[in-house]
Amino acid sequence: MIDYHKAAFETSFNSVLMLQEKTAKALDNILQQSPVLPAQAKAFINEWTNISKKVTADFKEAADQNYAKLEEIFASDVDTTKTKAKK
Fold first, then answer.
1. Residue 56 has pLDDT above 60, yes or no
2. HEC profile of 15-58
3. How far apart (Å, rounded) are the C-alpha atoms in residues 84 and 87?
4. CA–CA distance, 34 with 43 (Å, rounded to integer)
5. How many angstroms separate the CA atoms of 52 and 46, rounded?
6. Which residues contact 31 (CB under 8 A, 6 or more apart)?
7. 28 to each of 15, 25, 39, 66, how far by Cα in Å?
8. How confident is the model over 13-43, as pLDDT tens digits?
9. 33-42 burial by CB neighbour count: b if 16+ within 10 A, else e?
């Protein structure tokens, strides 16, 4: 069940990540072609995009760590159950 949920999360997360990358690329193209926006605004938007990418990567890392902990908890619970059954 955990593997299924993790796989569903991975698929959804990768879809969101792909959308984020495409949007960032499109936004970058717009910023490069826009003579109206001042350089400071372009720098702010680029910083915002970089922060968003970092937050996404941090979220993925946290999710992976928590899935590992969850698998560890259930694995130790299975070991405990097997030990009790042998007694």
1. yes
2. HHHHHHHHHHHHHHHHHHHCCCCCHHHHHHHHHHHHHHHHHHHH
3. 5
4. 13
5. 10
6. 37, 42, 45, 46
7. 20, 5, 13, 34
8. 999 999 999 999 999 999 899 888 898 999 9
9. eeeeeeeeee
52: Cβ–Cβ under 8 A, 6 or more apart, which residues?
Answer: 20, 24
Q: pLDDT category, 74, cuts 50, 70, 90?
A: confident
- The Cα–Cα gap between 72 and 68 comes to 6
Question: Is the Cα dihedral 6, 61, 28, 41 positive or negative?
Answer: positive
87: helix, strand or coil:
coil
**Residues in Cβ contact with 45 at an 8 Å cutoff, skipping those fewer than 6 apart:** 27, 31
